[in-house]
Amino acid sequence: MKTLIEAWLLEAPAGLSQELAGTVKLVSVDQPLETKDSFCCQIELDGRLRGSFWVAVETEALARLLVAARVTSDESDRERDASLWQGILRQVAERAVKRFGKESGATSAIQTIREAPRPLGIAFAAYEIRFGEVSVRVGFADQTRLEAEAKPQERSTAGTLPTRGVELLLDVELEASLRFGSKEMPLSEVLELGPGDVVQLERHVSDPVDLIVGDKIVARGEVVLVNGNFGLRVTEVAEPKKSLESIRCLF
User: Fold this and answer.
1) Residue 250's pLDDT is what?
2) Under CATH, which architecture does the 4-146 domain have?
3) Which of 57, 84, 114, 172 is most exposed, with the fewest beta carbons within 10 Å of its own?
4) Higher-scoring residue by pLDDT: 203, 70
């Protein structure tokens, strides 16, 4: 397997079926997806396989798909549908990247998935997502590339963990916490707080939350529910050396 799109086309039907709780077929079509009235996502990868994988989808058809799968109600909401679609794409992308890595030996990681203008001059492979009676036109463009593995003496040590002695710390248990935001308050206001009072944090509801270990931010992401408990879907990760600094501050 030499390209990510090969893995994507193999994993997308199963990944979409799982996310939509129904059978999904992915069928190649001849007519390309129209640029207007489409929602485009850029999936950025880092590792030996790096670059961008693009997914474009018909906006109105996507809304019908989410309704048919009972993910949303009949009420149209583009921002909501876009957010849900990005979450679905993340699950499919993780399956595709994992399969590509397993078959090629080239590890990679998803850095970000975000809405972005459809790039000019890039050909999109045209497909249809078929879910029951609903058909959704989609387009895929693979702009990832496989980096040649560097020789041991040529590998950069920038951003990697020092290996000497680190294995002694791998079983150390650390307390991790989520930070939704913060606010500086004078002591007089703190003492006046009572039941029912609201403290407004200095962070918008759409901003990612921080994962804190020690006093260092090691990752950021979005809050999700996992079996009735709060969880964090990681979207950004600090460099390994910066993550290691969070351990240092505890000793």
Assistant:
1) 46
2) 3-Layer(aba) Sandwich (3.40)
3) 172
4) 70
